[in-house]
Structures are given as structure tokens and as C-alpha cells.
From TrEMBL:
Transmembrane spans: none
Name of the protein this chain belongs to: Alba DNA/RNA-binding protein
PANTHER family per record: DNA/RNA-BINDING PROTEIN ALBA 3, DNA_RNA-BINDING PROTEIN ALBA-LIKE DOMAIN-CONTAINING PROTEIN
Pfam families: Alba
Position of the signal peptide: none
Domain DNA/RNA-binding protein Alba-like, residue spans: 20-71
Cellular component terms (Gene Ontology): nucleus
GO molecular function list: RNA binding
Amino acid sequence: MEAITDGVNKMNIAESQKKNRIQVSNTKKPLFFYVNLAKRYMQQYAEVELSALGMAIATVVSVAEILKNNGFAIERKIMTSTVEIKDERVRPIQKAKIEITLGKTENFDELMAKSAQEREAADAEAQS
């Protein structure tokens, strides 16, 4: 019985630490940090999962919309839930959670190459 319990525990840990998951905070980093990070993750993994709790949900939705509106991403899945978190006094608190899975668009690589060229041009202009 212990072997089964250990297997289940290891499975949950592996699932919660996906390599293509970005856990967004609304206080730690600016919005475009997450936009650029999501682009990099999509280059590596072809899709990215944006995840947030509570007040950071608005940030995740903004990141996803920026990527979609600029043609970098398509929406694959949106999942909402409520999770129970313990506060400082060890009292359980219900928090809203969202997970948005985005995939690369067909022209993702072209858009990334174009933005890299524009950035290089701007850097060259700034140096001269």
C-alpha cells in the first residue's frame, strides 16, 4: 500500500512542476516580463501554461490577450477552479485559480524573427 501512495505523491509533484508552466504573480514582475517569458517558453515547448491565483488572474488574462492579439498564440484550454490555501493563522482561505494553455500560431517563428530584427535595428541605431 505504501508503494502506491508514494507513486501517487510523486505523480502529483511531477504534474505540478511542468516545465512549460509559468506561475504569474501580480506584484513580483512587470506584465511584459511574463509576455516575453511566455514567448520564450513557446519557442522551446510549442505551448505554455499560464497559471495564477486570486488577484493575479487579471495579469494572466492580460498576458494571454496580448499574445493572442499580436498573433503569437492561440488559446488551447482555459480552466478555472477554487483552491484552499492556509493563511498565517493556519485558517483555510478559498482562492480563485486560472490556468490558460496557449499554443504557437503557424506564423509564430516568422513573428519572432521579425521582432528580433527590429530589436537589432533599434540597438544599432541607439549605438550610433
